[in-house]
Amino acid sequence: MMRPKSTMELVPGDDETYYLNMGPQHPSTHGVLRLRLHLEGERILGAEPVIGYGHRAHEKMAENRDYLQFLPNTSRIDYLSGMIYNLGYCQAIEKAMQIEVPERAEYIRVICAELNRLTSHLLWLGTYLLDLGGFTPFLYAFDDREKLLDILDSVTGSRLTYCYGRFGGVSMDVDDTFLRAAADYCTYFRKRLDEYHALVTHNIIFRHRTKGVGVMGPELALDYGVSGPCLRAAGVARDLRKDEPYGIYDRFAFDIVTAEGGDCFARHMVRMGEMEQSLNIIEQAVGGIPDGPVLAPKVPKRIRPPAGEHYFAVESARGHFGMYLRSDGTDVPVRLKLRTPSFVHVATMPVVLPGTMLADTVAILGSIDIVIPEIDR
Amino acid sequence: MFRETLIGAWSLLVGMKVTLSHILRAPVTSQYPRERIEMSKAYRNVIRLIEIEEIGSHDCIDCQACVRVCPSDCINVEGERPDGMRKKRATLFEVEFALCSECGLCLDVCPTNTLGYSREYDQAGFRRDDFLYDLLDEWRDKEEGVRTRLREEEAQKAATKAAAASKVTAARKAKDEAAAKEEGPAAAGDAGNSAAEGEA
């Protein structure tokens, strides 16, 4: 296992190096993350992330309320892919209690989760380019994201904190307008993807700032438990939707997008490719959605998963989101441990950052797509 | 090196072509305060009591289901059983919207489906009290009339029920008498059964 070299201790008599606090209030951290950097000129010798500024004790809250009451919390852990977390939590409880979900609800879940993945990647694209100094793609990406949020809003009634899933299905049925809007968006967005590639991917300045920067090799990624686009950018083809299919993901044809190099550019390419795969999934799901109820008819009024340990994981926009549940058979969990990807990704920073330049810190931190509340939950 | 400069310059030109093509497109920003935005059909905001047709008003029966399910503990409901009525009516329905997370669980559990969402969207306030919503406010003028009508309906229902019940009692009495004349205790059980059927 690679361990970060400890360079954070002050060395007496060392006048050449200095320490710098990046954050907690820094625009590129998209929240409150503090990086303690040890610098020699502009070269980074050591880095230490300091977390906890956005801690809201979600896991503790889960122990103080019943299973249903924890639902609104789930879309607030990672506010950018709240739908995936929300539906993932529902699926975890359904798996523990063996509740059957109607077909139509499963299709709706897939469509909504993939639309949400698109919004998350689009926001990443916009803000990442903004971090690197490109303002135009940011506006385009946010415009596209806003269109998606309108589609999701029309069925869930909310832009970010959806709370759409229910144990045994979803809270509201979708209509044809929604399905048509989702399908139309796919056609529209394919054209837009080409524009993004022309504007961003092929841009020489972007390439120079991201190629070979912030390399996270497969060995390091696997050692630390990195998942999602960051892992796939290191060349490891792992996607929970394919490897451990949950819901009805095994019915759709899509590829695991990987890239070589593990640098910021590879992570960009993986996310761009994933958006395209999400469009494929949405189109297939919209084409195959059956009629029927959206909520299981026989869901117990009191949610009491059987005593014991339950584990369930979904592929969020950022990676492997796992829920480890310990139940004693009552309607309040004993423990609900949330394994969130950003927490792991930010832990690699002490290894990835040393040796790079200070200006690259922003590029590297942005490319791993961290969401602060998800680190702290 | 020269090659890279050329490729770089070309990539910038390609990017410029994309941005230039956007110049001619209509602006996507809506001028919010001057231009009102239509909220979606499913839009979630502060809850309100919606009209139930048969009642002519809201149908909150003070069952406390929403109060119990609310994760944020922001709903406060009190109610009373009006004189001469079997059903309860709410006398207080307060929502502290500043605490609400708009999860919609209260709508799911409402047994009379009398909860809905408000269509407002630009609530802003300077004090905490500005977010304390009294949901009964819009229904208060109607309440007396509704109660009188409900009371009458209930009384009517009770009267028909009583009439039906007295019929059953009369029938049972007649049967009992007939059975007593013919045979012993075995027939009494049958009479009991038919009475139960009548009530059902």
Description of the structure:
The complex is a heterodimer of chains A (377) and B (200). With 377 residues, chain A is of the alpha+beta class. Chain A has one domain: Cytochrome-c3 Hydrogenase, chain B. Chain A has a three-stranded antiparallel β-sheet with strand order 1-4-5. A three-stranded antiparallel β-sheet of chain A has the order 8-9-10. In chain A, strand 2 and strand 3 form a beta hairpin. The radius of gyration of chain A is 21 Å and the shape is globular. The two termini of chain A are 26 Å apart. The mean pLDDT of chain A is 88. Chain B folds into two domains: 94 residues, Alpha-Beta Plaits (2-Layer Sandwich); 53 residues. Chain B is 44% helix and 12% strand. Chain B is built from five helices and five strands, in the order αβαββαββαα. In chain B, the strands form two sheets. Chain B has a three-stranded antiparallel β-sheet, with no helix packed on it. Chain B has a two-stranded antiparallel sheet with strand order 1-4. The longest helix of chain B is centred in the last third of the chain and has 43 residues. The C terminus of chain B is likely disordered. The interface between A and B is medium-sized, with 31 and 29 residues.
Task: Please outline what is shown here.
Chain A is α+β, with helices and mostly antiparallel strands. Chain A has helices at 58-62, 71-77, 82-97, 103-131, 136-156, 176-201, 204-210, 218-224, 229-233, 240-243, 264-288, 341-347, 349-352, 358-367, 372-376; strands at residues 18-22, 25-26, 31-32, 34-40, 43-50, 165-166, 169-170, 308-315, 320-327, 335-339. Chain A is built from 15 helices and ten strands.
